[in-house]
Amino acid sequence: MLRACALLLICFAVGLPGCGPPQKDPAVIAYEQLHSAVRRGDAEAFVELLGPASRKTLADRVGASPDDTAALAKRVGVRPDWAILDDLPRRARVEPVEGDATRRVVTGPIGGMDAAIPVVLVDGAWRVELFEARRIEPAARDG
Q: Can you list the domains of the chain with their CATH numbers?
């Protein structure tokens, strides 16, 4: 009886880590955090989650240094009613970029089409290249 209980306990301990919901890809988490920052009106978090190319694009548009998060956040003025939320899919999935472990493409539905948003690994953290996003026509997805 003791041996059977020990065996059952070992099986339970070995099987336990495999239980529960699957872990989200960190690129999707970064994307969801960016979406959440916009909904909260948190401009600093929004800027912090942008990838280098998007920070540069934003800095060029608002006349600030891409390295100055506080100045970019102040000039951008993210608000919860910002129209950009209409262009960000709420349900996102991730697709790896073949041959490049530092890049992912987050896709999700917007108005009957998917948006493809690059996410890059920068200094150990995933950052969203929001201004490199593009819409994927249904025909492009299928073929």
A: 23-142 (3.10.450)
Q: b/e map of 103-133 (b: 16 or more CB within 10 Å)?
A: bbbbbbebeeebbbbbbbbeeeebbbbbbbb
Q: Terminal CA-to-CA distance of the chain, rounded, Å?
A: 59
> The pTM is what?
0.74
Sign of the torsion formed by the C-alpha atoms of 43, 33, 131 and 53: positive
* Structural Rg of the chain based on CA atoms: 20
d(CA 65, CA 119) in angstroms, rounded, equals 21
Asked if the model's pLDDT at residue 60 lies above 70, the reply is yes
